[in-house]
């Protein structure tokens, strides 16, 4: 009798563990806070040696939607509400914030999940492609009248991420992840009456904490 009870308890535990699975055919949705932290560098502003643009960090609502192709492989799309960044300059006479831009960085990833399908904890790594489009570029604050008519080209580059899901129950889980995207753009702007272009590498780290649901 005791052996039968023990076996029943083991089978119950195993069946409960299997319910935690990220398994083939599952859709996985995550939503939470995503912070874009640029690792920026740029060419000289208007050809002036030692000058460059800066880009500050911003946090928005991040959203990922994934589909498990197998128990270990998924495809996933990263989306977000528009990120807004201040553009700064160390050019003499226009030091400080000179503009603001918005962008959206949709990113398509192919990911590999470690562990078994019935694991409660699922770390993963991924690689894919990022497309970033910029909009609502404008010059504000210092530099108005000197630096004007700012625009940034859209960017297409590689991306990578690592993350981990921890299942709370059959459907809900919590997630943390880190992303890296290769975002290189060309900034065009007027300095006085002269149109100037400068290469800008943004190359941000994206840190995300989220809740998730699978179905």
TrEMBL record:
Subcellular compartments: Cell outer membrane
GO biological process: transmembrane transport
A cellular-component GO term for this protein: cell outer membrane
Lipid metabolism found in the keyword field: no
Keyword annotations from UniProtKB, A to Z: Cell outer membrane, Membrane, Signal, Transmembrane, Transmembrane beta strand
Record-linked InterPro entries: OMP/PagP_B-barrel, OMPW
Predominant subcellular localization, coarse grouping: membrane
Database matches in Gene3D superfamilies: 2.40.160.20
Tagged with keyword Signal: yes
Signal peptide, first to last residue: 1-21
NCBIfam families recorded: PRK10959.1
Family: Belongs to the OmpW/AlkL family.
Name of this protein: Outer membrane protein W
